[in-house]
Amino acid sequence: MDLTLWPGDMVGLQVLPPADDLAGWVRTLVGLQAPAAGRLALLGRPLAGLGERDLRGLRQRLGYVPAVDGAGLLPAWSGQDNLALSGPAPAAGWAAEAQRLGFPLHWLAEPVALRSRAQRHALAWWRVVRARPQCLVLSVWPWCLPGVEDLRWDVLWADAWATRPGVLVLCTDPPEGWPAPLRALLTRSGRFNRGQVEWM
């Protein structure tokens, strides 16, 4: 994978068939497995030859949600306890922050295991954004799923873009079929050209 992604860059990749291993792409992009050929550099650092300590430090600067049912959350923990893993409590308090983002307050107190798949992904993205990552890897679209439509995604994404992270979008569909919020974001930031990736 010949790709160098710097903070503030935005790149969209349409993963062509066979695309049944989208999770494998994500694992490669976050340094959990090596690319089969080529090279991969994130935030200006080539992944080849990095030791485990350096890779771990690099991953801590990345924000992504695994495309699995648990979305990387601890199911027996409450929503608030999971969110607290990404940093100190919001200055205005958890309740005020949940209301600002449109999250129901009982999601904070109840175990994550009680949430639907879409709701878990929404909580996971809130946790990712709170960590203020330098690079976001997007491969799931929780805002398209039932049960999370009323959340303030516009506010959450505004929080995410405030620090100008590098953004890498992975999808098996052509850009025309992408969710409207993502298409709007890419339209402002760059373009696709007949399936070829262009820097955005």
Lay out the secondary structure.
Layout: E1 3-5, E2 10-14, H1 22-29, E3 40-42, E4 45-46, H2 52-59, E5 62-64, H3 79-84, H4 94-101, H5 106-109, H6 117-130, E6 135-138, H7 153-161, E7 166-171, H8 180-189
Parallel strand pairs: 1-3, 2-7, 5-6, 6-7
Antiparallel strand pairs: 3-4
Structural notes for this entry:
The chain is an alpha/beta fold. It has one domain: P-loop containing nucleotide triphosphate hydrolases (Rossmann fold). 34% of the residues lie in helices and 13% in strands. It has helices at residues 22-29, 52-59, 79-84, 94-101, 106-109, 117-130, 153-161, 180-189; strands spanning 3-5, 10-14, 40-42, 45-46, 62-64, 135-138, 166-171. The strands form two sheets. Strands 2-7-6-5 form a four-stranded parallel beta sheet, sandwiched between helices. A three-stranded mixed beta sheet has the order 1-3-4, with no helix packed on it. Strand 6, helix 7 (153-161) and strand 7 (166-171) form a beta-alpha-beta unit. The radius of gyration is 17 Å and the shape is globular. Mean pLDDT is 77; it is low at 187-200.
